[in-house]
Amino acid sequence: MEKERRLLQQAVAILAILPVAIGLYGVLFGQALTGDAVSISAESHFRFLSALLLGIGLCFWSTVPGIEAKTGRFRLLTLLVAVGGLGRLVGLMLTGLPSLFMLGGLFLELVVTPALCLWQTRVANRYAEEFGVA
């Protein structure tokens, strides 16, 4: 049980580096990430969404200590990420294939994050059974 819990904590801590780093980069450098010239309003929106991504990554990091007891928070964060992934999927269907980085993001949003959520639920359930916690 403890080994699986630690592996989950490590996986979440490592994977959350991506939204934190990408979100921070987007806040600091804006649309420069793509090299495309955009309006000031689009630039502002890009930085806002980057800050949300940064916040989601930080919130995932907040689940690492005591991860077995943070199921509600983990599920809410997973829902937010998956809804974002569905938005990205709609964009893919409406406008075509994005870059490989965006496809990687889609995979993380619709496959990896829900899989981590299922894993967190498994760990939480095993913890509850082992220690008689509800």
From TrEMBL:
Annotated Pfam families: DUF4345
Transmembrane parts of this sequence: 12-33, 45-64, 76-94, 100-119
Name under which the protein is recorded: DUF4345 domain-containing protein
InterPro entries documented for this protein: DUF4345 (IPR025597)
Species: Microvirga thermotolerans
Keywords, in A-Z order: Membrane, Transmembrane, Transmembrane helix
Organism superkingdom: Bacteria
